[in-house]
Amino acid sequence: MTEMVYGALPERGGEPILPKWWRTLDKWSMSCVLMLFVIGLLLGLAASPPLAARNGFDPFHYVTRQAVFGFAALIAMLLTSMMSTTMVRRLAVLGFLVAFVALALLPVLGTDFGKGAVRWYSLGFASVQPSEFLKPGFIVVAAWMLAANQQINGPPGTAWSFALCVAIVLMLALQPDFGQACLILFGWGVMYFVAGAPMILLVGMAALVVLGGTLAYSNSEHFARRIDGFLSPDVDPTTQLGYATNAIREGGLFGVGVGEGQVKWSLPDAHTDFIVAVAAEEYGLVLVLIIIALYASIVVRSLLRLMRERDPFIRLAGTGLACVFGVQAMINMGVAVRLLPAKGMTLPFVSYGGSSLIAGGIAVGMLLAFTRTRPQGEFGDLLRGYRQ
């Protein structure tokens, strides 16, 4: 439909899939993802041996698993990035339905692994966190609904997507998993804003979020404990935030040296939620700034490419995926430096975790598919067409 309206340029007939994929791919963004994965393995070598020793495994048990999960994630990313936008949407709808059902059944079949929040399915040899796979699926499905809402006599996609968003947020809050709930709500809000939402409505949504946070603080001991710890002027040095804060302070500009860090021996989540503390202590501010630059490059380049996209669905879905990817990284690093309350959220492609790595690979693969160069001409071609 978009091509009929705007007059797309013809594609190269008969071009093989791989050369076409490589020619149209955002190679810089893909290179940044690969660099993040390599950094994750490097930090895993430093952070995971103490945990492996405590659990009775060989020193590189978790690094090996991270490499396996990461390889699977990269394969998923490459295969997804080769798909057409129609195939990506079909994959997202199917994945969303499966993940939504899995999320709904968590209270019955899930486990908390002693962490106080029922977020996982235990498979014996591994665990699966449905919310990680739900995020990219929901973003694409919601973008499809919002784009359909813009069509003449189209369905009420905005209302449908918002109802779906609220249902997911409520299920996540009951686990409780307020971090993922905030990401889902943020992703929908960004897409709705790009789709042309009135500012007064967004302000009203922000007020509802504040009200929901107040109710959660009053009724959830888990939520209240994290907020109180964040607002407290004194940091208990024996808590995870205390250990992470001290590690970042000790690292300075260039770090204490490879393998010389001590925080990995004290933090139970040094290889996941607080991997940035390990990076800051052993490699210093320099590596942390490199990590930030890699995430920023992926997000900014993706948004710049999406600004030239004419198809509303592609523009909305790509924007949602890019923003959620960037904000998740920002939240993880913000928690480590005590700018945000603890969320239990991984750092994409850097932290250890099978579900987060593979789901992240699928999400970035979708983003790369949406940001591929398409034969749709430039906006100047459209304006010249109007003058003729």
What can you see in these coordinates?
- Belongs to the SEDS family. FtsW subfamily.
- Its main location: membrane.
- The protein is built from 16 helices and two strands.
- By secondary structure, the chain is mainly α.
- Strands 1-2 form a two-stranded antiparallel ribbon.
- A hairpin with a 4-residue loop joins β1 and β2 (127-128).
- The chain is globular.
- The two termini are 22 Å apart.
- Mean pLDDT is 85; it is low at 1-10 and 377-388.
Q: Walk across the major sheet and give the strand order.
A: 1-2
Helix and strand content put the structural class at mainly alpha
Number of domains: 1
Per DSSP, what share of the residues sits in E-state strands of 2 or more residues?
A: under 5%
Name the helicity range: 55-70%
Question: What number is the mean pLDDT?
Answer: 85
Distance between the termini: 22 Å
The whole-angstrom Rg is 22 Å
Biggest sheet character? 2 strands, antiparallel
Which spans of ≥5 residues are poorly predicted at pLDDT below 50?
A: 1-10, 377-388
- Following the backbone from N to C, one meets helices and strands in this order, namely HHHHHHEEHHHHHHHHHH
The outline comes out as: globular
> In total, how many beta strands?
2
- Helix count from the secondary structure assignment: 16
Pfam family, one: FTSW_RODA_SPOVE
Family: Belongs to the SEDS family. FtsW subfamily.
Main location: membrane
EC number: 2.4.99.28
